[in-house]
Amino acid sequence: MSVIKVGHDCCGCRTCKAVCKLDAISVVRDKYGFEQICVDETKCVECGMCEKVCPALHTPVIEDRKLCGLAYALDGNTRHNGSSGGLFGTFAKKVLSQQGCVYGAAFDANLQLKTTCAETEEELIPLYKSKYLLCDTHTAFGEIKEKLLAGQKVLYCASPCQVAALKLYLGKDYENLLLVDFICHGVGSQTLFDQSVSYVEKKLSGKIKSFIFRYKVKNGVSHYYYKMQYEKKGKLLNKEDLYFSFPYYNGYCKQLVCRNSCYACQYATPERVADITVGDFHNVERYEPAVDSYAGVSMLICNTQRGKAFVESVQEQLHIKEYPWEVMEKNNHFHKGDGAPKEQKAFMESVANDRFEETVDKFLKPSRDWMKLLYYKSPLFLRKIAKKLQR
């Protein structure tokens, strides 16, 4: 029996393909645009290697916590560059200062999301910010293993399922490996993101050159802005806006675009797979009214002694305040949830069968969310009143 039995529980990590020495495994995209595993049974000898490294079949969790609380980088640029409090940037720069390297998700020149290595601070820049779609690990796991065996320090930051996949691929612990996962709300497909890019390019009559999720806007009203640079008539122009106006981002915030496995994720639990877990500290104003959440503040969990020791090595660069686990648990995605939204199935059928423009009109037009738009355009004091009423 091969890893094909995983079916729709597949998280798309590609680790099975990486370990198959007979090249019997390939990645194909289904009618919804999701990357799926395909096994050539004429090549497969049922050696079982693919099953051994599948994070859907094995969950290498850590059932311990050494520290948890809120944190953010004291350096303003590092904090601004991150999606939340700039912890990833702080950790990454520390590893680089130790002649190490950092692996994370970055868009290439064609806006394809791939696991990418940074060995300088300049190379680190594309790894910042949330990406919200499945990251192609391609040859990264093999590269990481080579660097670990050579004695180089490696930081790998990814979704919990991909961190688990790397651990299974390596098959043993390495003292020079630091694993960082984040609180993940699911990933969508590269195909759907590409379709959104093409849709917006047509409306702009331009070519999108770069895209940033979770862009921080001064005096912003939401954590979910984006920034993109596009070329039009030979000029480079910038556009910043709320998530509503970019179809993929809007679909993600509505939780319509994720893989099937994400809606019942076995890694959305208090038990983690990485040395350190980071994420948003939702509703931080309830606990720290003076903290500017739009400037960025993170939830921090050290799951291992290695993670705790590493955080202590950079603690002078961070503001950290410990909180009991119960506060962390109330403020983030540590449980599988209630499954997909009611519209998700119809949305995906539209993706598979309709023109993308029709899918946008049916599900993702900003005017469908006029109440949210009204909220975001309201004065600050009215938004504060609305937030209090929601509690």
Q: What would you say this structure looks like, in words?
A:
This protein has 391 residues and is α+β, with helices and mostly antiparallel strands. Among the domains are: 3-52, Alpha-Beta Plaits (2-Layer Sandwich), CATH 3.30.70; 67-188 and 257-330, no CATH class. It contains 15 helices and 13 strands. The protein has helices at residues 15-19, 49-52, 76-81, 87-97, 121-124, 140-149, 160-170, 190-204, 247-253, 305-313, 325-330, 344-353, 356-364, 370-377, 380-390, and strands spanning 25-29, 35-39, 67-73, 101-107, 113-118, 154-158, 177-182, 207-215, 225-232, 235-242, 276-280, 298-302, 318-322.
Protein traits:
single chain, 391 residues, alpha+beta, Alpha-Beta Plaits, 3-stranded antiparallel beta sheet, 15 helices, globular
Largest sheet at a glance? 8 strands, mixed
The total beta strand count reads 13
**Strand content bin:** 15-25%
How far the N terminus sits from the C terminus, by CA atoms, comes to 50 Å
The percent of residues in helical segments reads 25-40%
Oligomer state of the chains in this structure: single chain
Strand order of the largest sheet: 5-4-6-7-11-12-3-13
Number of helices: 15
Task: Report the mean per-residue pLDDT as an integer.
Answer: 93
Structural class: alpha+beta
